[in-house]
Write a structure and sequence with these properties.
2 copies of one chain form a homodimer. The first copy, chain A, is an alpha/beta fold. Chain A is built from 12 helices and 12 strands. The N and C termini of chain A lie far apart (67 Å). Chains A and B meet through α4, α5, β2, α6 and α7 of A and α4, α5, β2, α6 and α11 of B. β2 of chain A pairs antiparallel with β2 of chain B, so a sheet runs across the interface. Chain A binds a DNA duplex (30 and 30 nucleotides) through α2 and α4.
Chain lengths: 336, 336
DNA sequence: TACGCGAGGTGAACCGGTTCACCTCGACAT
DNA sequence: ATGTCGAGGTGAACCGGTTCACCTCGCGTA
């Protein structure tokens, strides 16, 4: 109900209206250092004049913007899209806005975008990284509260980490494929080229060795359209694998598309498993075997970590959560 | 390269360094009113000191924030998720950041979120509305450049509109179903309750009448999990429709899920068609008949309209684009 | 030579909050 | 009655840019 035409009510107008000083009004609005009576008066006046503090001015003076940056390594990945939504909802509850940035699969872009978000003076950063790329994350994590999701950034001490238990996740998936009779397995991971040292990649190698599997780890773009041509190539070759493990459901979708185009049947000709268990995965033909990372829980932990760090306003110990994987076996890996 | 510890370089420091006044530096950095020589000197000094203008201060003083608000009626809809990504990418090219807000299916929340975005001083607004809800959009569109996607907001003269040609889209879909032998068709639309006067809804009624179909329009939540229980109910009843037309692919996915649970076959027992043609739709079993709205084109037009309006900085004629529908017939509507 | 003009530059106010240093005044202890 | 203390409030500086009004000076023209 503020006076629409043009400018908004300012704190000085409010001061004049109540006969107080701007300082008093400022304190009163934030419930500090003033008598209950004064606070009431100011609040009423604010109501009456439709006063609404200008976040920009507040940010310039005080520091906090109530905006959080959400940096996603690849928004082409459906799981990440869902994650954005979940984080979004959590932050809405916390009265904060979200500045979203998408590195679009290019690790080099991540740091640049992070800088851009910091320039915008976000209060904190949620990062769903593609990979460590260059250094630079350390200084960012030191500059402002940062929470990572999915993979830890090596050498970085962020405010919080929500980490997928890739050791167990990959192990479980590979065991499952092994039990279904597969030995020659290709693993498609979008990170293998950009960040060969990620936990997920290490887990793949370790588990493969432990289980005596013949693994082939292949770098793959992060999306349906990214993995399709690669899958076409892989599956068209004479020594094609009997199973493909995809480090994201989106990648698996591309494999499905390739199979359709090549006339291969899943799981008859090749078994496919994903990661993330996107809601659509169970609707595919055949339903996709995948591994659940509970998105809502991930988002909740991440935002909670971030908010705690923002409140604390000083270096704390890193809050950490290891997200347990749950394998959901469906028909895409059924024994032929 | 800025001095990390603490504060950034300010324009006054830069002024001192170059021996100019802050005003001159400010002008120089934006290439106004200064000699080439001065501009060069300032730019060099800026480089040297790692100067980067503070967007907050700039916003407070000048007005523009280089941030655009993206307000989505429902991020649970997969098509909208893709749209966010596409708009995101367009804006990245235009050196602008994006504040994303999700009304989460509640029309009432849309206006509140729009206000919140305006409070953050976004330079413009891209709205993917659920529905007109209350008035209030007029004043918003008058306050700042606004572009709508999908449906026009009645009574509002925004800076731009990218509108789906629902008349043709719905008509084409219904004709297609009719040709496949269907007469009793249920239409699931998430907007029918919140905004019964949307173009899409009117198109449904008009086309249904023109084609002599027995239509039943049912309001439905906007997501897979939202439509599933509804579809269960619909398909469990004795006089179930022979075809279901969903105003979004996400809704169709819920119908698929319900069919799976009820043991109904698509298209044998019931035909299903969607809208939007999400990349996954063709991977379902059976592949989903849908109608393409070219997402990249939509995003490009919308952002281009918005940027033009922001540049123009004054009321212009509404830029408008009508997006043509293209039906993609797949097996989910194959004649039984 | 006098004059006008415009390019180039300056100082200070301003945007709208926050915060620091300081002041006042009444209550309470001594 | 005096001194102390702290709750409540004030004025002004400050955050870091932008912009307005004004000033200066060199050049071209009459």
């Amino acid at each position: 109900m503020a006076s629409r035409p043009g400018r908004r009510t300012t704190i000085r107008e409010l001061a004049e209206y109540t006969g107080l000083s701007p300082a008093a009004v400022s304190y009163a609005l934030r419930g500090m250092q003033v008598s209950a009576e004064t606070e009431r008066r100011v609040r009423e006046a604010a109501e009456e004049l439709g006063y609404e503090a200008d976040p920009i001015a507040r940010a310039l003076a005080g520091g906090a913007t109530a905006v959080v940056g959400l940096l996603v390594g690849s928004l082409a990945d459906f799981w990440n899209q869902e994650l954005v939504r979940a984080v979004q909802r959590e932050l809405y509850g916390a009265e904060r806005s979200t500045l979203v940035a998408d590195a679009d699969g290019e690790p080099a872009r991540e740091l640049e975008l992070a800088r851009r978000l910091i320039d915008q003076r976000v209060d904190g950063l949620v990062v769903v990284p593609i990979g460590p790329a260059s250094g630079g994350w350390e200084s960012i994590a030191r500059e402002l509260p940062t929470v990572t999701i999915g993979d830890a950034l090596p050498g970085v001490k962020p405010a919080g980490e929500v980490i997928f238990d890739h050791d167990r996740g990959v192990r479980t998936s590979l065991e499952h494929l092994r039990e279904s009779g597969h030995r020659r397995i290709t693993v498609l991971s979008w990170a293998v080229e950009t960040s060969p040292n990620r936990q997920a990649e290490r887990a793949v190698v370790a588990s493969g060795a432990a289980l005596g599997l013949d693994l082939d780890v292949v770098a793959c773009a992060y999306s349906l359209n990214g993995s399709r041509p690669l899958a076409q190539e892989l599956l068209g070759s004479p020594e094609r694998p009997t199973a493909i493990l995809c480090m994201s459901d989106s990648i698996a979708y591309g494999v499905y598309a390739a199979c359709a185009e090549l006339g291969l049947s899943i799981p008859g000709d090749v078994a496919v498993a994903g990661f993330g268990d996107h809601p659509i995965s169970r609707l595919l033909a055949p339903p996709l075997t995948s591994t659940v990372w509970d998105i809502d829980r991930v988002a909740e932990s991440a935002t909670s970590f971030l908010l705690q760090a923002i409140e604390a306003d000083g270096p704390q110990a890193t809050l950490r959560e290891l997200v347990a994987p749950v394998l959901v076996a469906r028909d895409s890996t059924r024994r032929a």
